[in-house]
């Protein structure tokens, strides 16, 4: 029969786990807790071809076993960062199963912030989702990439778009004063793993947000490049960063039919279609 197996991997996706870090130095209602929630994807590669081609499952680590591994290691690990937890997971699969050649772990975190001064109440107020990918390959150093998605940022001036290409289909006018809004996502690659991942993420986030605000933007492309440069300058432990800044359009509403002059105050918000801008900045 024609056709051969060219590549394969399998695992368990959307394994959702939460953990309460408890000092256990006092009754539960008197101590200060930390609350972590993570969604984990596990993907394995290795000597699994016979399960596809011959129905031979004797080396298949069940996806349910993958799920259980996440929960057991969440018990044993402090889960101080999704990157560190991903490294623990990848290393466990490689060390426990000699026929696994690669383990890829993709993690995303729901951020729970402390609610007021309560020692054990939290609120998920952030839209931003921290993410990480850990790839462990037998005989090789692990690769860690971090990032986030769904960070909504906007500025209501200090942005324009002028002197862009003229063609017969162009209808968009030049503007020197517009709303720049985007739902930012990014990922960066570490050149060393001797870092505090949580602190590194915060430094990169702070540098990106600061650079977004501190200049007149002649285009989303220019602002993206400035932000990438700022992240590399802020964090020597990363070798590259990819930013995606879809342009969330706020279009000036036409109030002339109603006898009103719109002095850059009222806008039509559109989700689709949207401008898509992405780039990778390297050292």
Main sheet attributes: strand count, strand direction, barrel closure: 8 strands, antiparallel
Mean pLDDT: 96
What is the end-to-end distance?
49 Å
Number of helices: 5
User: β content, as a range?
Assistant: 25-35%
Based on the structure given, which CATH architecture of the largest domain is correct? Roll
Low-pLDDT stretches are none
Core attributes:
Urate Oxidase, 283 residues, 23% helix, two-stranded antiparallel sheet, alpha+beta, 32% strand, 2 domains
Description:
With 283 residues, the protein is an alpha+beta fold. The protein has 2 domains: 10-141, Urate Oxidase, CATH 3.10.270.10; 150-282, Urate Oxidase (Roll). Helix content is 23%, strand content 32%. The chain contains 5 helices and 12 strands. It has helices at residues 49-53, 63-76, 82-96, 197-213, 220-234; strands at residues 10-21, 34-46, 100-110, 113-114, 122-123, 129-137, 143-155, 180-190, 238-244, 250-252, 267-269, 278-282. The strands form 3 sheets. Strands 1-2-3-6-7-8-9-12 form an 8-stranded antiparallel β-sheet, with helices on one face. A two-stranded antiparallel ribbon has the order 4-5. Helix 4 runs antiparallel to helix 5. It starts with 9 loop residues before the first strand and ends with a strand.
Sum this structure up briefly.
The chain has helices at 49-53, 63-76, 82-96, 197-213, 220-234, and strands at residues 10-21, 34-46, 100-110, 113-114, 122-123, 129-137, 143-155, 180-190, 238-244, 250-252, 267-269, 278-282. With 283 residues, it is α+β, with helices and mostly antiparallel strands. β4 (113-114) and β5 (122-123) form a beta hairpin.
């Amino acid at each position: 029969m024609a056709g051969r197996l060219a590549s394969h991997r399998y695992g368990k996706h959307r394994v959702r786990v939460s953990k309460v870090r408890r000092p256990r130095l006092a009754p539960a209602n008197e101590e200060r807790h930390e609350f972590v929630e993570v969604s984990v994807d596990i993907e394995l590669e290795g000597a699994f071809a016979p399960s596809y081609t011959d129905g031979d499952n004797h080396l298949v680590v069940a996806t349910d076993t993958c799920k259980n591994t996440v929960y057991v290691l969440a018990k044993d690990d402090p889960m101080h960062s999704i990157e560190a937890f991903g490294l623990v997971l990848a290393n466990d699969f490689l060390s426990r199963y000699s026929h696994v050649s690669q383990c890829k772990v993709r993690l995303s975190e729901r951020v729970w912030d402390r609610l007021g001064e309560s020692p054990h109440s939290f609120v998920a107020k952030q839209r931003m989702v921290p993410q990480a990918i850990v790839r462990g390959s037998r005989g090789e150093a692990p690769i860690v990439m971090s990032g986030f998605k769904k960070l909504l940022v906007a500025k209501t001036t200090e942005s324009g778009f002028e002197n862009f290409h003229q063609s017969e289909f162009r209808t968009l006018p030049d503007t020197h004063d517009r709303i720049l809004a985007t739902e930012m996502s990014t990922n960066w690659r570490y050149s060393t793993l001797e870092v505090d991942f949580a602190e590194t993420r915060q430094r990169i986030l702070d540098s990106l947000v600061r650079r977004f605000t501190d200049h007149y933007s002649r285009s989303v492309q220019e602002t993206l490049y400035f932000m990438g440069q700022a992240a590399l300058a802020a964090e020597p432990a990363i070798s590259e960063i990819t930013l995606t800044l879809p342009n969330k359009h706020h279009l000036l509403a036409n109030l002339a039919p109603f006898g009103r002059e719109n002095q850059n105050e009222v806008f039509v918000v559109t989700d689709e279609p949207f401008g898509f801008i992405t780039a990778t900045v390297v050292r």
